[in-house]
């Protein structure tokens, strides 16, 4: 096992998931619930299952598509999102003042 890769992926995911909605939901449930153990194990099980499904799906897609095509699809997806945010986001936010 590549321990460097394991540590790097753990740190990356850990930092990106701080303050995630699932953590906030677990905190809210544990403040109201009678059994914190049940909430902890339910939340941990759900997070493990979603991570497992994501890893299996990612592995399956990586086996089916060459890396070059996968990178191209990801790049096009990010480019489309960027273009939509820059050029087609004409909706005013509720906090903004109307322009005359």
UniProtKB/TrEMBL annotation:
Name this polypeptide is given: GDT1 family protein
Residues passing through the membrane, by range: 38-62, 69-88
Keyword NADP included in the entry's annotation: no
Keyword Membrane: yes
UniProt keyword list: Membrane, Transmembrane, Transmembrane helix
Signal sequence range: none
Family: Belongs to the GDT1 family.
GO molecular function annotations of the record: metal ion transmembrane transporter activity
Subcellular location: Membrane
Membrane topology: Multi-pass membrane protein
A cellular component annotation (GO) from this entry: membrane
The organism of origin for this protein: Nostoc cycadae WK-1
């Amino acid at each position: 096992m590549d321990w460097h890769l394991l540590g790097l992926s753990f740190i990356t995911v850990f930092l990106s998931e701080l303050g995630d909605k699932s953590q906030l939901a677990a905190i809210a449930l544990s403040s109201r619930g009678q059994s914190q153990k049940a909430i902890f194990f339910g939340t941990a099980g759900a997070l493990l299952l979603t991570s497992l499904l994501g890893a299996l799906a990612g592995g399956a897609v990586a086996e089916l598509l060459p890396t070059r095509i996968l990178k191209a699809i990801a790049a096009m997806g990010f480019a489309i999102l960027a273009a939509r945010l820059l050029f087609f986001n004409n909706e005013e936010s509720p906090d903004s003042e109307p322009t005359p």
